[in-house]
Write a structure and sequence with these properties.
This protein is mostly beta strands. About 10% of the residues lie in helices and about 35% in strands. The chain has six helices and 30 strands. Strands 1-21-20-19-2-3-4-5 form an eight-stranded mixed beta sheet, with no helix packed on it. Strands 10-11-12-13-14 form a five-stranded antiparallel beta sheet, with no helix packed on it. It has a five-stranded mixed beta sheet with strand order 25-22-23-24-26. The longest helix is centred in the first third of the chain and has 12 residues.
């Protein structure tokens, strides 16, 4: 008999003993959060520059939503023997939507959870595997290690040239068996375990409850050089009686081996390890997803409640809630995966980047034949009437990484909060995180810093990479060296010393 997802097995034992307690808890969460009957369904930057200081924010400002939407049916599923599909992480990446989620293939690795991969033009699907076939199992258990049987609940980022996969791993069905691991990849498909194959977050063991799930369900965002990691730990001191709760760590090290800070009632404080005592939970829920919304200058946490996905908001230091929650309505059976950029931030609204924020999720909506969540579907709303770009600094911050038509029949790219005029649209599309069909009118008030002309000078140096030398005399490094050829720019080899002597622009590319 094929095994079920680890959370469904482990959580069932704890919750059979605490059924009455869970029923009582279902109505007592802030914001209407409904604790789920399992603790393990999945959840489901290159261009930089100094960020302008944000003005003080109001607290609990109501947000209006419209443009409700949803896919007409199921958008993704594994092959014929994949009886469950849940816990997606969804990435809007260079004109395609990429998704990883938890499932199980009978012929892939040990008999446990696998992480599948597929892609589509939009979140409405249909999602297919590489080359157009069935979704591929790209990550499975590693026998003899902490994740020997199950790998589930993916959260995927891309920072620079590297993809990071954060996941729940388990060696079997033993109590408190879940921990969080990380793997890296050059393409999001072929993965190598990091940290020597060891977990980066273990259960804290502050309190042992009837729910013996442990630590898992990670979701990660990259912001201002920090990796923000939110996760479930049913042994955390601040978790609910049923183990529900979401804890937050941050580090500039993607494997959280050092420089770790934990969110407590005193804010972010340095801790010796990532398995420190959990003293503050941000939401009474299992299975959440996290994103940063630059247009609102806020983190957003998506979690399931009675009527759909509730999105709650926190400022950057998690000291206040600047906005009231919003709801993405519709059916659900397992946690949401927000549609995010490679760095975990929310994409821009193509229609009105300064006035709207799209909030889109993919989530399981039915219980399938294995008594586990399946039928992944897309739902979304827009937050409207946002005032995201009141000043030039805020405008450039919100539009950072976007390209759009220029008044000169070329394309303007916002990079490092500067405006670069690019002659070729095809080149701008490779450098941008998102290409807008319409120009944002207020960008006309911002001067163009420099221009990338067809055939512009390009240089390379050992250990440095490839970059354009533009009309401003600065060297603008490229995340993807092949962009030089797309621009018909011959590449001249220079020494590392010559490279370092150039005044630097910002890294081009997402």
């Amino acid at each position: 008999m094929r095994t079920l997802p680890p959370g469904f097995r482990r959580a069932a034992r704890g919750f059979l003993a605490t059924l009455v307690c869970v029923a009582m808890l279902a109505g007592c969460s802030d914001g209407g959060s409904q604790p789920m009957a399992d603790a393990a369904g999945g959840r489901g930057g290159g261009i930089g520059g100094a960020k302008p200081k944000a003005p003080p924010q109001a607290i609990n400002v109501p947000l209006a939503t419209d443009a409700g939407r949803g896919s007409p049916g199921v958008v993704a599923a594994g092959g014929a023997d994949a009886v469950y599909n849940y816990g997606p992480t969804v990435m809007a990446d260079g004109g395609r939507t990429r998704m990883w989620w938890c499932s199980q293939y009978g012929g892939s690795g040990p008999p446990g959870d696998d992480i599948l991969y597929a892609e589509a033009p939009t979140a409405d699907g249909p999602f297919t595997g590489p080359g157009g076939g069935i979704p591929a199992a790209v990550f499975s258990g590693n026998p003899g290690n902490f994740d020997g049987v199950h790998t589930c609940d993916p959260s995927v980022l891309r920072v620079g040239e590297t993809y990071y996969l954060y996941y729940t791993g388990a060696a079997g069905d033993h109590a408190l068996g879940n921990s969080i691991g990380v793997a890296t990849s050059p393409d999001g498909i072929t993965w190598t375990r990091a940290n020597g194959g060891r977990p980066i977050v273990d259960p804290s063991h502050d309190v042992h409850r009837d729910n013996v799930y442990g630590a898992g369900q990670p979701t990660v965002v990259y912001l201002d050089g920090w990796f923000y990691l939110m996760f479930t730990d049913t042994t955390g001191r601040a978790a609910g009686v049923n183990g529900a709760g979401q804890f937050l760590l941050r580090s500039k090290d993607p494997v959280f081996a050092g420089g770790v800070e934990a969110l407590s009632d005193q804010g972010f404080t340095a801790v010796p390890t990532a398995s420190t005592t959990r003293t503050r939970s941000l939401v009474d829920a299992f299975s959440v997803d996290l994103t940063w919304i630059e247009a609102l200058q806020a983190f957003a946490i998506a979690h399931e409640t009675t009527d759909g996905t509730t999105v709650t908001f926190w400022n950057q230091e998690f000291t206040a809630s600047p906005y009231r929650p919003v709801l993405i309505p519709g059916p659900w059976r397992e946690g949401p995966g927000l549609v995010r950029r490679p760095d975990g931030h929310t994409p821009l609204s193509a229609a009105d980047p300064c006035g709207r924020v799209p909030l889109d999720v993919v989530r399981a909506t039915a219980i399938g034949g294995a008594a586990a969540p399946t039928e992944l579907r897309h739902f979304g709303v827009d937050v409207r009437a946002v005032v995201a770009c009141p000043t030039p600094d805020r405008l450039l911050s919100v539009l950072d990484g976007a390209a759009m038509p220029s008044p000169a029949r070329t394309v303007d790219l916002v990079a490092g909060r500067r405006v670069l005029r690019v002659d070729r649209r095809s080149v701008a599309a490779q450098l941008a995180g998102q290409v807008l069909d319409q120009r944002v009118p207020s960008l006309n008030t911002v001067p163009v810093t420099t221009r990338l002309q067809t055939g512009a000078k390009a240089v390379s140096a050992a250990g440095r990479g490839v970059g354009f030398v533009l009309a401003d005399g600065k060297l603008w490094p490229l995340r993807r060296p092949e962009v030089a050829a797309a621009n018909d720019s011959p590449v001249t080899e220079i020494s590392p010393q010559q490279w370092d002597a150039y005044p630097m622009g910002f890294l081009l590319g997402r």
